[in-house]
Write a structure and sequence with these properties.
The protein is α/β, with parallel strands linked by helices. The chain has two domains: 172 residues, SPOUT methyltransferase, trefoil knot domain (Alpha/beta knot), CATH 3.40.1280.10; 69 residues. The chain contains eleven helices and seven strands. The longest helix is centred in the last third of the chain and has 25 residues. It is globular, with a radius of gyration of 20 Å.
């Protein structure tokens, strides 16, 4: 769960509960994972999730770079896919330097951090998603996100290493959390249950698969080669909004009603 604190040197519990999980997709060097863990510890993040680290896990090189953040490495979880790592998340924020031509909401780090902390305060589960050192996130991973973050750095030199990116986003989230708790004078933990249950990534992915199957049978994909691109754009369109479980049930109901209507029309025409 995002915000779970593992260290004996615990952060303020209210701040800890507001901080997002950090997902590193296909990180390459153990040293970079360790440096990212140290950056997380600086900012009060504690939930580290790794997707297929290239050099395996655990990695002694990560321990050497983590310094005081070794407890985060000890608790890090490894997943076979980004979708699995983001399971349970109701708001996923992806960092990428490139515009992908998708329909997601694009924010700068400060705007995204405010959205993350607000979401955590309502009982949602959030995660920051970072790509690997060589190629970053692929389009399918970006399509999973509700928000894309781009950093308005010097256009002549805008490259950040992995730990820098984690520190930048972690710092902005911490500042947003400090601001939010100061404004609300929050002493007690926020409610663990939102007013409406939010749809996590697994629930949304199941809906997208059902939608893809049904529209494929209806002949929606004129070109098989374009099917993955079209589905990424459809996912991005839906992910612009944070969907609740009721939203997903409604969408499933709409699909079933359309399917029933199509079958009735076929019967009338025979």
């Amino acid at each position: 769960m995002a915000g779970t604190q593992h260290s004996a040197e615990a952060d303020h519990p209210t701040l800890a509960r507001l901080m997002p999980a950090v997902i590193l997709s296909h990180p390459q060097m153990g040293e970079n994972i360790g440096a990212a863990a140290r950056a997380m510890k600086n900012c009060g993040c504690s939930d580290l999730r790794l997707v297929k680290p290239r050099d395996g896990w655990p990695n002694p090189a990560a321990e050497a770079m983590a310094s005081g953040g070794s407890d985060i490495l000890d608790q890090a979880a490894v997943f076979p896919s980004t979708s699995d790592a983001a399971k349970g998340c109701t708001l996923l924020v992806a960092t990428t330097a490139r515009k992908r031509g998708m329909a997601q909401t694009v924010m700068n780090p400060r705007q995204a951090a405010e959205a993350i902390i607000t979401h955590q305060q309502t009982g949602g589960e959030t995660a920051l998603l970072f790509g690997g050192e060589r190629a970053g996130l692929d389009n399918d991973e970006v399509a999973l996100a509700n928000i894309i973050v781009t950093v308005p750095l010097n256009p002549l030199f805008s490259s950040l290493n992995l730990a820098q990116a984690v520190l930048l986003m972690g710092w902005e989230c911490r500042m947003a959390a400090l601001h939010a708790t100061a404004d609300s004078k929050a002493i007690n933990p926020p409610s663990s249950e939102p007013d409406e249950a939010l749809a996590d990534l697994k629930t949304r992915e199941f809906f997208y698969q059902m939608l893809e199957d049904k529209i494929a049978r209806g002949g929606f994909f004129a070109s098989p080669d374009m099917r993955p691109v079209i589905m990424r754009n459809i996912k991005a369109m839906f992910n612009k909004s944070v969907l609740t479980e009721q939203d997903i049930r409604t969408l499933h109901g709409i699909m079933k009603a359309i399917e029933r209507g199509g079958k009735a029309l076929d019967r009338d025409q025979t």
